[in-house]
Amino acid sequence: MTLEIDDKQFNDIIASVMDELPQDYIKHMQNVAITYQDNPTEAQEKELKLRRSSLLLGLFEGVPKTESYGVSRLPSKITLFKNPLLEVSADLVNFREQVKRTLWHEIAHYYGLNHARINQLEKKNQKRT
User: Fold this and answer.
1) What angle do CA 89, 11, 43 make, to 5 degrees?
2) How far is CA 121 from CA 58, 85, 116, in A?
3) Could you tell me whether strands 32-37 and 58-61 are parallel, antiparallel, or unpaired per DSSP bridges?
4) I want to staple 106 with a disulfide (CB 3.0 to 4.6 A). Which of 4, 19, 60, 99 is the partner?
5) From residue 16, how far is each of 6, 12, 20, 123 by CA, in Å?
6) Cβ neighbours around 47 below 10 Å, total
7) Cβ atoms within 10 Å, residue 113
8) pLDDT in tens, 86-120
9) For residues 32 and 78, is the Cβ–Cβ distance under 8 A?
């Protein structure tokens, strides 16, 4: 059985998991669009030098908040990729968790956090839920 999610369901899941992420980080995001698309574009794959076997679940494009120095810039963008997320998900519950984890990861990149700090904050957040 293949899991299928339409765009409305995907959008609803994204909105729902936003409420579950650390709200201190969510409320201080500025000038960031959160979008989704079915798959990464060829240009995104080329820019990231992805191998054919790689799956890109999400992508932060822009200037991390730690590097913006309060200067107004073009909006940053976080994109979640529906088909790769579906590919790594066994069921709807797992899909929702993958979306939540990927979105948190990309938001953390907006804040300039490294992977060690992202994992530390994930664990802290899991203890609160």
Assistant:
1) 75
2) 18, 22, 9
3) unpaired
4) 60
5) 15, 6, 7, 19
6) 12
7) 19
8) 999 999 999 999 999 999 999 999 998 887 887 78
9) yes
3-state secondary structure of 40: coil
CA 24 to CA 18: how far, in whole Å?
12
Q: Provide the whole-model pTM.
A: 0.85
**Dihedral in degrees, nearest 10, Cα atoms 65, 44, 59, 75:** 40
Which amino acid belongs to residue 35?
Answer: T
Structure tokens at 29: 């995001």
Starting at the earlier edge strand, list the strands of the sheet with 32-37: 32-37, 76-81, 58-61
Report the C-alpha gap between 127 and 37 in whole angstroms. 31
Q: Which two tokens stand for residue 50?
A: 């992805």
- Packed helices 92-110 and 115-128: angle between N→C axes, nearest 10 degrees: 130
